[in-house]
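Slide 14.
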Amino acid sequence: MRCPSLSDLPAPPAGKTGWPWTDSTPLPSASVMPNGAAWPRISIVTPSYNQGQFIEETIRSVLLQGYPDLEYIIIDGVSTDDSVAVIKKYEPWLSYWVSEQDGGQAHAINKGLEHCTGEIFQFLNSDDFLTESALIAVACQIRDNDCLAGGVIDLDGEGRQTVVLSRNLTAVNFITKSPNFLYHQPGVWVRTAHVRQLGGFNSALRYKFDWDLIIRYVERWPRIAYIDRNFAFFRLHSNSKTVSEGEGFWEEELIARELLVHKLITAKARAALTRIIRKRHWRLRINELVEHSPTSRRTALWNLFRETLQNPLYRLDRYTLGAAKRIIKNN
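Slide 15: predicted structure.
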């Protein structure tokens, strides 16, 4: 679908100005890309549930990209606010949309993925929105690469903005959280066919499904183009999962890591992930030993160091020594 013009779309709500309300990206003057190739079709899926206060901005930011070959799909999980009414306003310019029960965010994205026919894929949450001319930049910069990584502007409730540029996206860096590594999902654009080859997103995961997929993706298809260009605004608000359910991300990450270890290809990535899993399990075990230590300080310390000596290479660390100090202090 060719993106609509500003005059094609419904008028914005009163008081809304600027991008993407009263501003838009003009269509390229040429029918082909600067290199002479056809504009690649870009497929975007928005999973939606009760984000009626934000979703219209999301939709307009996609439709007003001025892009020659857009496929936009919205999968709503039977929202109880005005989300569906907003979606219906823009129905003529959507490639597909539905409002029905689903199994969560990852399942909704996978449902949208089934309808995608584009070369390039992205999912955009219904409380986030694209920057102006983002899609033209994606098409021109991804070139022959498997992935394009750029920036995301975090936008908090006070209007403060922080730019996060994805960098050094390797499976091992994801796993070990290398200090030179950064990842922010809306700034990373991938190939639809590759996502399908991986089986889509793991719908058993509520929080870490994109993390799980992108690790497997970059391990198999490591050709990544990095640019200093912001592609999206990412909202941090009280109802977003990132803010309201932050603890859940870390709890699920341990589960996601253990599932992932069997899917990795390279021995280096599997070894790195195994070390991280063992270290995390050891820290959970330390917490149990400290919280449920017996009355005797000597016995508590003996239990801690007896288990530490079973594998001192990764267990005799600062966290273990700190636990010993806590046992001494608490007894």
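Speaker note: The chain has a mean pLDDT of 87.
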